[in-house]
Amino acid sequence: MLWSYFLLLTTLNISLHALLYPAESETRQVKSLDGLWHFRLDEQGVGENERWFAQPNLPDPTIFMPVPSSYNDVTQNITIHRHIGWVWYAKDFFLHNTAPRWVLRFQAAHYESRVWVNGHSAVNHSGGHLPFEADITPFISTNKDYSKVHIVVAINNTLTPTTLPPGYLQIHSPSYRELQTPFDFFNYAGIDRSVILYSTSTAYIQDITIDTQRIDYDAQHIATSAVLVYTVTIAGVNPINTIRVLIELLDANGMVVANNTDSHSSLVVTKPNLWEPCGMNYTHPCTEHSYLYTLQVTLYNDSPQMNILDIYRIRHVGIRTIRLTDSKFLVNERPFYFHGANAHEDSDIRGKGFDHVILAKHFNLYGWLHGNSFRTSHYPYADEFYEMADRFGIAIIDETPAVGLSATQFVSQATLDHHKQVTTEMINRDRNHPSVLMWSLANEPESNVPSAKDYFSALANFTRPIAAGRPITYVISAGYNSDQGIQFFDMICINRYFGWYSQSGRLDQIPNLVSEELTNWRHRFPNKPILMSEYGADTVVGLHNDPSFMFTEEYQKDFYTAYHSIFDNFSSLIHPDTGFFVGELPWNMFDFATDQSITRVGGLNRKGLFTRQRQPKAAAFVIKSRYEHLESINTNDLCNSFE
Ligand code: GCB
């Protein structure tokens, strides 16, 4: 009987961030607070002084606002669309006092959030794309069977030079305020991801980490065994030796394949089924599932009855390794080639608001396209994207919201500190997802200025020890001879727009320029694989011209084709001995909203392979047939030979 093998827990790591996704179990209840909330603007910024959080209702005028959604596009009101400053949300609900501890969790709210529960300040959070939560038990009545709960949230979307992303408020006149954003997407705001209430026991599982440490293979490259290392963090208990823990790994049929009773140890799995990214010759198609295990952690009290205190399950554990060589990105010791498309969290009416329909369509379209990867440009996405990516075997390059950094930020300790903070929060949240193959710490910083060197050196040194086995990178627009920071990172990811922003209209110039570019980067960094992390052309759906002109569907098709033959010349798949090019990610999967400007017709960046309504442009079929072809390249003979 397992109980007899139990060891008393010896270690307790209290982490600052409890970031486990709120999941139901035998010991945990989850209640969604999504729906219509009361909402109003606070154009004068007086709400906090007037103590709106302490009143039974927000002062009129209020409207109903769906949560989750960005508030900007839900009404016909341009003032709400372009509002800069505070907005307020409120909601009432009943809570039945059936658990000792209740936690209120915001999956994300953009940007600066203050939360009050029954008039008490519960939590403040800075940053738009990561969860935050508060234990609200002290603010609800525990002497009755139920509590009436009044939540008030104030949110400010004003970006500053030290927020991530940064922004610059220009006050031209009292009636003409403008938030300048050094990035190319609309600064959607509000409670744009779900709000969840969940319960735990008094002693509870606060955090779990799990990583594949190694996989052994036989001569046919069939996995014979794997070692997973894990850490379980417990909170709410004193002294710790009154608690025991059981860690079990369940296969897809629910059978226990490994277990342990230490809070920080390893699990050995014989004949493991590996998690594999989809759409490579030796793996599964992108429409089929990848193999996932479930990690089940059970907390008991150390009494003869062994009462269960808490149970938490991670249902997306994948066994896989990542390793970079000088020229290849290896997953499970086989060369992986990224062929997908970047995206934004963006859709009609919802803005950046999370929506299950958009989520499902997103992954259906990656399957249709045979796309095996995307970068979460330019911020961490909602948790649900990572869970779906785990399931379908879509690789994710997980990006922080550090887009638009310039020399101003590189000399700011406040920015560096916040950058470290969001990097930590992102890694803590996402590290258990097998789909996350790499961390991107920034998009297109002004990395050619001298101060970028110290900034990125410090950031890389900070991140490497917490990177959970993933390579680190940032995405570069600077030139191969001027970038100061990528020397401290593992991969070269470049965004290039030959034939669009430069050599506009000259598709004929693209092949030579791409070839020169890749050769020059390789020359400077012979030990780092290279990925084209963006390339694309704005395309107005339905606009045609022969010969192909900019903005037409023909141009977008020809644009992509012009890059592809050069990619193949350097491909690590096609040229296993000499190739160093490990992937291509068009910009963008979908048309997406931007600020209004003279370069963005209708306030949209139209570089999507699909429209904002998720319908294909002609280039989508070009990419689909290319990706089908890439899948057929046989890499079976290439295993185990990469040093
Ligand atoms: C880029 C940026 C991306 C823009 C894109 C464009 O290099 O990384 O955020 O949307 O160019 O279309 O201009």
TrEMBL record:
Transcription regulation listed as a keyword: no
Biological process annotations from GO: carbohydrate metabolic process; glucuronoside catabolic process
UniProt keyword terms in alphabetical order: Glycosidase, Hydrolase, Signal
A Gene Ontology molecular function term of the record: carbohydrate binding
Stretch forming the signal peptide: 1-18
A family per Pfam: Glyco_hydro_2_N
Residue ranges of every copy of the Glycoside hydrolase family 2 catalytic domain listed in the record: 322-630
Annotated Glycosyl hydrolases family 2 sugar binding domain residues: 30-200
NCBIfam families per UniProt: PRK10150.1
Protein family: Belongs to the glycosyl hydrolase 2 family.
Record-given protein name: Beta-glucuronidase
Native species: Adineta steineri
